[in-house]
Structures are given as C-alpha cells and as structure tokens.
Amino acid sequence: MQIIEHIYVDGSFVVPHGSEMFDLFNPATEQVIGRVRLADEHDANRAVAAAKRALVSFSRTSKSERLDMLQRILKAIQAKEDELTEASMLEFGAPAMSARFHAKGAATMFEQALKVLREYDFKRRVGSSEVVMQPVGVAALITPWNANAIFIAGKLSVALAAGCTAVLKPSEMSATQTRVMTEALHDAGLPAGVVNIVTGRGDVVGETLSAHPDVAKISFTGSTAVGKRILRTGAETLKRTTLELGGKSPFIILDDADLATAAPVAVQAGFTNGGQACNAGSRILIDERRLAEFEKRVIEAVGQFKPGEPRAADTRIGPMVSEKQWQRVQRYIRLGLEEGARLLTGGEGRPAGMSSGWFVKPTVFSDVRNDMTIAREEIFGPVLSIIPYRDVEDAIAIANDTPYGLQAYVMSAQDKRAQDVAARIDAGRVLINGLHYDFDVPFGGFKQSGLGRELGVAGLEAYLEPKAVLGVG
Ligand code: NAD
Cα of 278 to ligand 1 centre, how many Å? Predict the structure, then answer.
C-alpha cells in the first residue's frame, strides 16, 4: 500500500496543508492500493504564489533555454516509461498495450512541443511595428483521470514552451501516475516555482484556481458540466480558457464501404480505452439496407475485444476506473433497453466468469434512434449505438444532430466521397478511412465539446498574448 503524502510546490516536495486522505483503488480487484493526502485552498494559493514569483524570470527566458528545459523533461519522462506503464495498469486498469501507449504518449507530447517551439517565431515585423507573442502568465492546468500522464504532459509542455509557469491540478483518482510524472519533472531540474502540482478535489483546488486573480489562463480537460462551471467562474477575472470536453462522436459508414473492413475499425474507435475516451466513436451510422450484414460483422468484431485483467496478454478492455463509473455505464445500458434499443451483444452486469472488478460487458445496441438517451449523452464506457440512416443527407443530419462536436469518422470506398461528407460535419477532427494519429494538427471541439484548440501552433498560441509595439522604426 503506497501513501502519497506530498504535493510539489516551489521546487520541493511538501506535505500539504490539506489533511483529507483519499483512497486509491485497483479497479481490476476493487482493492485499496494506496492513499493520497489531498491539497486544499491554502495549498492551491501557495502554488499560485510560487508560480507568480517564478514567472518574472521564466517568462523572459530565451527560446533556446526553454528548448533545453523541455529536452531535459523529455529525457526524464522517457526514463520513467516502465513506471508510468505500471501505474496506468494498476490505477486506471489500462490493458498492458494501452498502458504502454499512455506512457509513451506523455513523452510524445514533449517531443511535439519541442518541434513547435523550434519552428515558432515569437516576433513578427508588420510595417514599422513589431508584434511580440508574450506568455500569458500563470497557467492552471486541470486534467481528468482517463489518460492522466498524457494530459499533464500535453498541457505542461506547451505552457512551458510559451514561457508560462504552471499550477497543475490532476485528477485525485490518478495520484500514482501524477507521482511518477512529478518525480520526472523534479529530475529535470527546472527553476523553483515554474511547475507546481497540487492534487486535490475539483470543487476545492479546482475552484480556487478557477477564481484566482493571479491565474491568467486555464486549460481544462474533463466533462462539459465542469468545463462550463470553470468558464463561468473564470469570467470574473477574464481568464483565457481552453476547454477540452466531452463527445458523442459519429462513425459514418457510407453505403459503398467494405463492411468487413469497416466493422472492426468502428468497434475499435468505440472501445478505445474501454470507451473511456472523449473521442470514442460511440454512434455508428450505417445505411439501413446494410444493417443486417453490418450487425453480423460487428458481433464478430466485438468478440475480439476480450475484457479482462489488465496484465493478461489477450485483454483488450480493462475495467472501468471506479465503481461510480461502473454504475454509470450500467445505468445507460438499462436506459437503452427501457427506451427500446435492440441489444445486439453485451448487456448489464459483469462479463461471464468475473465476480469482482469494475468490468463491464462490451455492449452494442442496434436500431438506436438519435433521440434516445444512449445516443445523446456521453456514456464513457464500452457501449455503442448503431443508428440506421436512409441516405447520405440523413447520415449527415444525424451526425450533426448532437450538442457535441469533438471528432467524427467517415468510411467509404472512395476517398473523395468521404472527404465531401467530412467537409459537412461539425467536428474538430474528422478521420477518414482509418484511426489516424496526427499530433501536428489542432485537437479540440466544436459546440459543447470545448473551446479553443490544443496541439500544433494553435496549441502554443493559446498560451500567448500578441503585443504590438509601434514606432520600432
Ligand atoms: P471531470 O470533469 O469530473 O473532472 C476533470 C477534472 O476537473 C478533475 O481533475 C476534477 O477534479 C476537476 N474538477 C471537478 N470539479 C471541478 C470544479 N468545480 N472546478 C475545477 N475543477 C474541477 O471529468 P472526469 O470524470 O475526470 O473525466 C471524464 C470527462 O473528461 C469526460 O466527459 C470526457 O469526455 C472528458 N475528456 C475530454 C477530453 C478532450 O480532450 N476533449 C479528453 C479526455 C476526457
């Protein structure tokens, strides 16, 4: 049993003023594996004060100094890859392969920030004036539990690249991963106060940061409800705000697509991270004339997604992160049945042969209407809805009929057709004919999936304010 008793403020590991102890669980066994001492308002204020002091000199560091620091952090995170993988399996229940992906992803975020920073010009000449991109100030970075190390790295790397100092508030449920990341950051030897990490409750530490007058920027990844609250609280001091929120992403299969190829890709898009992914393709749209054939393919594909113990080599879906999340998924499965969706595979309860752990049956409903609750709300578990459509126009209308707009997927035998449909979808990212990764282009949502963008130049500029200096000559 590990006891995590320190937060990281002003370059040191310190015992927080907060005294609440929070249990950490192994979701595969439901056993308590550790306890974390949570920070409180006092700790959050102390962290902001440290970040504010450090900002004075850090905001004036040169690009090459910051490149050097990011490089050191990258190396330190790479050195922790095995520890991060282990933490993600133990605390989040990620299957071994995904846990490794999460650990490598944290390093990838720093590689990306290095790449953007190397090429970025902070000063531009416009006529006789100069436009300088200046760091916005102290950044509060608030992250969720579903890929903790990646979100910490994604936000922090860019904040530092821009010359901002940071106060991180990671999810209290991911304290083991946070501990490993904090140790890596400490090993990198940054100036005191540049990075501060205060694990605490959202309604305590998160609220304090959202309201704090010395926090200039908030970057938040999490639920839409909390994102709206942060935006409202931050409005009082006009904080620059980036929000990465929920999704209900459509996976559109056009009538000419090869279903033997499309079905496993659609299932993979929906079951990524056990469905605990903001960009999961949770609504699968299929031509009604091909529904029966598609359903057969989907059942075969789901058979490949074995739920099980994270360390087992054949596990593709781990447990849900918490009992609360397990209950939430069960509730949506019941709602699907009550509202008349047809259960194709899966259903309520644990998978056969499992009597403990927050495991759910990989579940797919068919004949789902887009106005049913399971098609409208983010479930955040391996529960997919197949929605039949009449023609392409109907498919596009259904795809866009959602309060969300984070990601979409289109599959077709003809790239041009898929691109034409992609052009008409309101989403921050559209993936054509496959599950592509591209960290060079912006990530973020339309509508209630968020505000602003991360990654690429847009991601860096979210931490910068343009300042025009006139009369430079
Ligand atoms: P959450 O919104 O409950 O919590 C996210 C973070 O916000 C946590 O650190 C939490 O402690 C903190 N928080 C809670 N209340 C707060 C408050 N009042 N003020 C400030 N901070 C507060 O989300 P979660 O359950 O941890 O994560 C799941 C959600 O995250 C899903 O909705 C998912 O779609 C979303 N998500 C979005 C993206 C994206 O990039 N768009 C990526 C991953 C997850």
Answer: 10
pTM above 0.85, yes or no: yes
Distance of CA 211 to the CA centre of its chain: 23
Cβ 273 vs Cβ 471: under 8 Å: no
> What value does the mean pLDDT take over residues 440-445?
96
| CATH number of the domain within which 382 lies | 3.40.309.10
Res 401 pLDDT > 80: yes
Question: Are 366 and 233 found together in one domain?
Answer: no
Alpha-carbon gap, residue 366 to 167, rounded angstroms: 45
* Residues labelled catalytic: 244, 278
Domain assignment of residue 84, yes or no:
yes
Residue 279 counted as domain residue: yes
Centre of ligand 1 to C-alpha 143, Å, is 6
- From 22, 102, 223, 451, the mutation candidate for ligand 1 (largest count of ligand atoms within 8 A of CB) is 223
pLDDT value for 473: 77
Three-state DSSP class for 313?
Answer: coil
**β-bridge partners, 287:** 389
Instruction: Give the per-residue pLDDT at 1.
Output: 85
Task: Give percent of the chain above pLDDT 70.
Answer: 100
Q: Quote the Cα angle for 315-108-278, to 5°.
A: 55
- 61 Cβ neighbours under 8 A, 6+ residues apart: 69, 163
In a domain, 60, yes or no: yes
Q: Are residues 376 and 240 in the same domain?
A: no
Does 443 reside within a domain?
A: no
Q: Kindly state if the Cβ of 378 falls inside 6 Å of ligand 1.
A: yes
Residue 383: which of 323, 354, 341, 411 has the closest Cα? 341
CA of 58 to the centre of ligand 1 (A): 29
Contact 433, 410 (CB under 8 A): yes
For residue 272, the enclosing domain spans: 250-438
Does ligand 1 have an atom closer than 6 angstroms to the CB of 446?
Answer: no
